[in-house]
């Protein structure tokens, strides 16, 4: 293994971690602040990927495709919050899980009706199809660099929004004591609706950016929802900082399990078996990380509530 390969794979892990953060940040906002377990969050991710891929194919404008994905998914989330999620505030988590799991089934069937059951290909913008030499002898795909920068910018903006703005103060107040916040004149219902829409926008952005790197297909939201929940647990429910740190850890551990562990096993096992085991090893490494963190910090690395 060369240093160039190591650095390249670590950058890939950070990029994957940042995309997990965009999805997990929305989850931790909705669950940690609103106390609503929204399993349909992955379906919003899938919707963003499909809308962005379709708009990009028709208009050849990637920026327009991302903006269209944000607008469409936020509008869908607005209807979803008004018709269903608003009725789940204060309900037990089992009712929330059952209701939002039903949304997953409906969303998958709607996507099949609109785009068909076969995966569709989403291409990166032509201007970012090349590579940038970030170090001597290390060309790195320009599009992946854009994902890294976009993820860091969104992470910084989200941290400032939650911790250093009046809106963030109202959000934290409603999460800490909803009744007292309402007595003080805070419209907690509107604040919770805003939080849900912000989470949906983050999921749509993650889907639109991840589309060119993976197959856009039915069920892609459920596939990424599981590692996002792992990030949620490791980082601490309701903590943006915890979601960011946990997403970076999960991204790096997953990359190590997929890229480096198979290299060590190739002298010992047949190549086909090593290829089949790489995804399993990555999954086991991620869950081992979660188990190790929970053994020492049962509430996660940075729990929002002490």
From TrEMBL:
Transmembrane segment boundaries: 13-32, 62-85, 97-115, 142-162, 188-209, 229-253, 273-296
UniProt keywords, alphabetically: Amino-acid transport, Cell membrane, Membrane, Transmembrane, Transmembrane helix, Transport
GO biological process, one term: amino acid transport
Localization per record: Cell membrane
The keyword Cell cycle belongs to this UniProt entry's keyword annotation: no
Family designation: Belongs to the binding-protein-dependent transport system permease family. LivHM subfamily.
InterPro entries according to UniProt: ABC_transp_permease (IPR001851), BCAA_transport_permease (IPR052157)
Keyword Thylakoid found: no
Membrane topology qualifier: Multi-pass membrane protein
Gene Ontology molecular-function annotations: transmembrane transporter activity
Protein name: Branched-chain amino acid ABC transporter permease
A GO CC annotation given for this chain: plasma membrane
